[in-house]
């Protein structure tokens, strides 16, 4: 494995490799993205975002309903302890770590962010998941339509001193992600993790609208998809569904490194 130095998630540069910019991220898959998953992906990626995890009573109840219809979810008895234990299990791993969190209110987000901060990890606020159960209780994607509530969560997490990411999705009717980006940046977020769906150019809009670190996501699989997102101005790309497939991760790593080298010596 490449030797990498752990980076404190509160430092100004979002880096791995002891100073090289973070370019490749493993994205959360609920019920799957745990410390074992992150360790395996860590062979290839600069950052692994564990979770997502439901933090408060309404989001946990929604997660239970998801499990009842056969979706995988993390539902530990004590979510904060779970976050702490999972991140602690990765303390020897020289990549940036993070935890994707779902909540209907800011208090539990603040607590989870403090745990992340203590591990030098990134709390990632989930404004992305669109399952009915999660939307009905007012978390996940619903937060995109309610920027004030989203910003309350961002502010709560940022106040801990952690470097905060917000995971968003494109193609939500009535939601302009450029505006969302400006709002969450104003509330203290430093990173926006964008599931671009089939709207890849949205990355360029978000890049132009804010100084957030932009992670582009959705169907990042090969040289073509990596180049497309980075050409739109993404700082990094992320891999979700095939993040347990070393062949995909190796191919994406190679594409990302080739792009970075080309940028360094045009
Ligand atoms: C089974 C499954 C679970 C997921 N769980 C989460 C989650 O908990 N939080 C989140 O932000 N995104 C979640 N995602 C979305 C992925 O992180 C990613 O955004 C999406 O799969 C698109 O990227 P990909 O094409 O690389 O898979 C999940 C996706 C899948 C398929």
From TrEMBL:
InterPro entries recorded: Aldolase_TIM (IPR013785), DUS-like_FMN-bd (IPR035587)
Q: Which residues form the DUS-like FMN-binding domain?
A: 104-256
Supply the Pfam families for this chain: Dus
| Protein name per the record | tRNA-dihydrouridine synthase C
The record lists the organism as: Halalkalicoccus paucihalophilus
